[in-house]
Write a structure and sequence with these properties.
The protein is mainly beta. Among the domains are: 27-204, Protein of unknown function DUF2961 (Jelly Rolls, Sandwich); 502-669, Galactose-binding domain-like (Jelly Rolls, Sandwich). Helices cover 5% and strands 43% of the residues. The protein contains six helices and 50 strands. The strands form ten sheets. Strands 17, 19, 20, 25, 28, 30, 33, 34, 35, 36 and 38 form an eleven-stranded mixed sheet that branches. A hairpin with a 3-residue loop joins β33 and β34. The longest helix has 14 residues, at 191-204. Mean pLDDT is 93; it is low at 1-14. Pfam families: DUF2961. It comes from Gordonia rhizosphera NBRC 16068. InterPro entries: DUF2961 (IPR021345).
Length: 670
């Protein structure tokens, strides 16, 4: 029996507002969550972390270089962009998040010699600074062993992040934009910046309640019985609109029921549901009903037995929402779905993609999301069951690896499962914060444990224009068979014009390429899921995967290519074909990242397009692909453009490190 109680909002459709601008690239964007569904298309999501460069499990200590003052450089970027997340944990045998040994953290903006931000690492994370307030930032006491600062720190021309003490475990997320993107650099003393930070902190502090991201409108609610093995439609909407809230409580909330009853939602007559996940996973509640999950946009209250979603969910013509009950007993749901008097000019469709892998595959990452086209990832829920001895949950040693737009190099490469969710040391306790938390950590047998955790990417979404593959290791080196479940919250682009495709490929050397250099042949591996490493047979005894013996490739994952190395001062020229309807383009280079800090000035048809920096250096896994955004102002309407690269010297290269520029192939995406 379906009882539907509808409370009408103001009926005049003429009063419906239209949202069309993407979020601000600066601090203000953190409070503009009503714009979350809008795909910008300019941001390239990247990361700089202490992950083991050989693909093993020693995920602490690596850094880029030491600068002239002896500081440790953790992250470096050229062009406009924004630091979007900073995470660290301590390095000690006691297993705490104490970062005192790291000294001061400094942010150098736009080539300035004096850092605008220069504070003790502990102060940066504590959450009591006006420029780094709670709950946007917090230390290991509130984040279960991890220290985090999830706020946007934009820069107009360049960024360099350093510490005075040797770093241990760290992960810095950042974005870069085309050179013609206007960005105002972060000023921690600017009144407007402090006001924006305060507004964001106040918004995040409303986590657990309706944050009011979108204005209220029509309310659909009911007390509905879903038969055993059946399904029940909750509502059908036949006009353009936006769902602003979903709240569901079941009369049976045992583990099995919560992990079985599913919410499904379809937008605009889709054959396949965009939202299709069990309620326990959808609402980040853990194995079933455990401790509270109080995310700003998703969560669960055990006290009310109620889960909620506050993601904006726009649709162009229709929306269908239903509950599915595969169990052998009927279940009664008390539910509310709220519309907002809002439409979007061009927005992605909200998805909650559920994956369940009862037995992961040794040697291969667990896939969180594999999607084509354009889109934006804004959250991840993840639960994992694996071997555990005396609360030593080594299955959490797995690193996330995220590949964007078809690149063979991970744009983001983390240091461990709990690190990805901004905790540390297998979590010191359960916790729930506005954008991350751990809701379950429990023994499920004498030798097995289960963890559950969530993270919302409100300051650091992963945008993509030609697909994304996001995965995570199950234990170090994918060496342990685990049982994994996940939900990824994301927006899928509808506008086909936002997709990019390969329109040119230039081999080095070739007839269409000129540049004086030395021809080389390289056989090597990429970093990531196909790095040639061998997984350990007993992960809880052996710490991580290990590289194959020199000159061998038992996994068949090495690659041999012919290319060229260029000295500082060299000039390289080639022409690439573009789609004239492009909105900017991406130039992708296959390179040898055994060469340190490769930099080049880029010109498009003789006009400056920015500095192409590949900051990483890895003598172990030498293959890499690096992307450079060509500004739309230099490419729009053109079928082909001339690319010139002027090789620049690196900044503060380590003594004896190889420098210059390496290239084996260029690809244009437009």
């Amino acid at each position: 029996m379906l009882l539907l109680n509808v409370l009408a909002a103001p009926p005049a459709r003429a009063e419906v507002a239209t949202i069309e601008a993407p979020p601000s690239l600066g601090v203000a964007g953190m409070s503009q969550l009503e714009r979350l569904p809008i795909l910008d298309g300019r941001a390239q999501a990247l990361g700089a972390s202490s992950h083991a460069r050989d693909g093993g499990n020693s995920d602490s200590d690596p850094y880029l270089e030491r600068d002239a003052a002896g500081r440790f450089v953790l992250m470096e970027a050229e062009g406009p962009g924004a630091v979007t997340r900073v995470w660290m944990t301590g390095q000690s045998t006691r297993g705490t998040g104490d970062t005192a040994r790291y000294g001061n953290i400094a942010f150098f903006f736009d080539g300035e010699s004096v850092p605008r931000i220069d504070v003790p690492v502990a102060d940066f994370f504590r959450g009591d600074q006006a420029a780094f307030p709670a709950p946007l930032c917090g230390d290991y006491h509130v984040s279960s062993g991890g220290n985090y600062c999830d706020l946007r720190i934009p820069f107009a021309k360049s960024m360099r992040v350093t510490t005075t003490g040797a770093p241990g475990y760290y992960d810095i997320g950042y974005e870069t934009y085309p050179a013609d993107t206007r960005v105002h650099s972060f000023n921690p003393k600017d009144p407007r910046t402090l006001t924006d930070l305060d507004e964001a902190a106040q918004l995040w502090s409303r986590a657990g309640d309706d944050p009011g991201i979108l204005p209220p409108g029509t309310v659909h609610s009911g007390h509905t019985s879903i038969p055993a093995g059946g399904r029940t439609a909750l509502l059908h909407i036949s006009h353009a609109g936006t769902i602003r809230a979903v709240r569901i409580a079941l009369d049976r909330h045992d583990d099995a029921t919560m992990r079985s009853v599913r919410l499904r939602a379809r937008w605009d007559g889709q054959a396949m549901p965009a939202v299709d996940a069990p309620l326990a996973d959808l609402f980040a509640s853990g194995a079933g009903e455990r401790s509270p999950a109080t995310g700003l946009l998703v969560g669960y209250s055990p006290a009310r037995h109620e889960g909620y979603l506050y993601f904006p969910m726009p649709f162009s013509s229709s929306a269908d929402v239903e509950l599915v009950n595969p169990t052998r007993q009927p279940v009664v749901a008390t539910w509310t779905v709220e519309e907002a008097p809002v439409t979007y000019r061009s927005a992605g469709l909200f998805h909650a993609t559920f994956r369940d892998e009862p037995q992961t595959t040794v040697g291969r990452d667990f896939t969180l999301l594999d999607a084509s086209g354009a889109g934006k990832v804004v959250g991840v829920w993840y639960t994992q069951t694996g071997q555990s001895v005396a609360d030593f949950t080594t299955f959490m040693e797995g690193d996330e690896r995220v590949y964007v737009d078809g690149s063979r190099s991970p744009a983001l490469y983390g240091t461990g499962t709990e690190d990805f969710f901004s905790g540390g040391y297998y979590y010191t306790s359960l916790f729930a914060l506005p954008d991350h938390g751990a809701t379950t950590k429990e023994q499920v047998g004498p030798l097995h444990a289960q963890t559950a955790q969530y993270r919302l990417m409100l300051s650091d979404p992963w945008e993509f224009r030609d697909g994304i593959h996001a995965g995570i290791e199950h234990a170090a080196g994918n060496g342990q068979v685990t049982a994994n479940r996940s939900v990824v919250f994301w927006y899928a682009g509808q506008d086909i014009d936002r997709r990019i495709r390969q329109t040119a490929a230039i081999d080095v050397p070739s007839a269409g390429y000129s540049g004086v250099g030395t021809d080389v042949t390289l056989t090597a591996f990429f970093e990531g899921d196909h790095d040639g490493n061998l997984s350990p047979p007993l992960d809880w005894l052996v710490p991580g995967s290990f590289p194959p013996p020199p000159g061998t490739d038992p996994m068949g994952e090495s690659m041999t290519e012919i290319g060229r190395t260029h000295r500082v001062g060299a000039t390289i020229r080639f022409t690439v074909t573009l789609d004239p309807a492009n909105d900017g383009a991406i130039l992708r280079r296959l390179l040898d990242q055994g060469t340190f800090g490769q930099r080049a000035e880029v010109l498009v048809d003789g006009k400056p397009a920015g500095i192409w920096l590949t900051p990483s250096a890895n003598p172990n896994k030498r293959w890499a692909e690096s992307d450079f955004a060509l500004p739309a102002s230099l490419t729009r309407g053109k079928c082909r453009v001339l690319i010139e690269l002027h090789v620049l010297p690196p900044v503060d290269p380590p003594s004896g490190a190889p420098t210059g520029w390496t290239d084996f192939r260029y690809v244009a995406l437009s």
